[in-house]
Amino acid sequence: MPKVVKEKKVTKSEKVEIEKEATKKVVVKKDDVKSEAVNLSVPMFGLDGGKDGTLSLPEEIFGVEVNKKLLSQALRVYINNNTGHFSNTKTRGEVKGSTRKVRAQKGTGGARHGSVRAPIFIGGGIALGPKFRKIELELPKKMKRAALISALAAKNLDQEVMGISGLDKVTGKTKEMKAFFDKVALKNVLIVISEKNEKLQRAVKNLEKVSSTLADQVDILELTKFKNIMFTKTAIEKLQLRINKKEVESAK
C-alpha cells in the first residue's frame, strides 16, 4: 500500500507572515526599478564632430515607463494606415459581355453554360479575386500621445538619443554631413529640428538611412524606423509644447 502523505496545515499567523514576506519582496522589486536612474542628460555634437556640451531632456517625456503593448498597438495602426490595398478585379457581374446563352442547355455533349461572363471563359469575370478596400484604423488622442512618449522614452533607455547643434550653419553639401556622421560614428539617424531647414534637407537627401523631420510631425513610425535620434535644443522645446498641448486637448 502506498503511504499517504498528509498535507501540513498552515496556521493563520503563518499565513500572515508569508503574505508579509511576499509584499516585502514586491516592494523591493519596485524600489529596484525606481532606483534605476534614467539618464536625462545626453551628449550634444557640433557640426565639426566634437562634443558641444550636453542636452537636457524633459523627464515627463524621456523619463517615463515604456508601455510596450501600447507601442505595438500604435505601430499596427500606423503601418496599416500607410499600406494601400489597391488591387482590384472584376466579378462576372462587372464584366461587359452578352447576356445570351452560350449554347443549348442539352444535346451538345458539352457542359451547361449560361453566360460568356462566367469565370471559366477567357475575358470573363474573376472568381475570388482581390478587391480594392480602404481600411483605416483609429487611435484615440490620449493613446497617440502616450505611444509617442513611450517611443521617445524607449529610445532614451537604449541610449539612442543625442543632441546636435550648429545646423543653422549647414551649407547644404552632402559631403559636409557625411563627414560629420563619420566623425561621430553614427549610422541610421533621424534628425529632429524645430523649423524647416532646406539646406539640411538637401544635405541629407542623398545619404542612406539618414533623414530629417520637424518636431511637430515626428511620429512613432519614424522613431522606430531609425536607430539613432538627434534633437536640436529648440526641437526639444517644441516637442514639449506639442505634447503638453495634446494633453490639454485630450483632457477637454
Largest sheet composition: 6 strands, mixed
CATH topology of the largest domain: Ribosomal Protein L4, Chain: A
Q: Assign the CATH superfamily of the largest domain.
A: Ribosomal protein L4/L1
In the CATH hierarchy, the architecture of the largest domain is 3-Layer(aba) Sandwich
Residue fraction in strands: 5-15%
Mean pLDDT: 84
Q: Which sequence of strands runs across the widest sheet?
A: 2-1-3-6-4-5
Gyration radius (Cα, Å) is 31 Å
Termini separation = 73 Å
**Judging from the principal axes of the Cα atoms, what is the shape?**
elongated
Number of separate helices: 8
Question: Low-confidence segments, ≥5 residues, pLDDT <50?
Answer: 1-8, 23-35
> Helicity, in percent?
40-55%
Number of domains: 2
Name the helix and strand elements from N-terminus to C-terminus, one letter apiece: HEEHHHEHEHEHEH
What's the CATH class of the largest domain, please? Alpha Beta
Instruction: Count the beta strands.
Output: 6
Q: Structural class, please?
A: alpha/beta
Topology:
Blueprint lengths: L11 H24 L5 E5 L5 E6 L2 H4 L5 H14 L59 H17 L3 E4 L9 H11 L4 E5 L4 H7 L5 E5 L5 H6 L2 E4 L1 H19 L1
Parallel strand pairs: 1-3, 3-6, 4-5, 4-6
Antiparallel strand pairs: 1-2
Describe it.
This protein has 252 residues and is of the alpha/beta class. The protein has two domains: 37-84 and 137-251, Ribosomal protein L4/L1 (Ribosomal Protein L4, Chain: A); 86-132, no CATH class. Helices cover 40% and strands 12% of the residues. The protein has eight helices and six strands, in the order αββαααβαβαβαβα. The chain has helices at residues 12-35, 59-62, 68-81, 141-157, 174-184, 198-204, 220-225, 233-251; strands at residues 41-45, 51-56, 161-164, 189-193, 210-214, 228-231. A six-stranded mixed sheet has the order 2-1-3-6-4-5. Strand 1 and strand 2 form a beta hairpin. The longest helix has 24 residues, at 12-35. It is elongated. The termini are far apart.
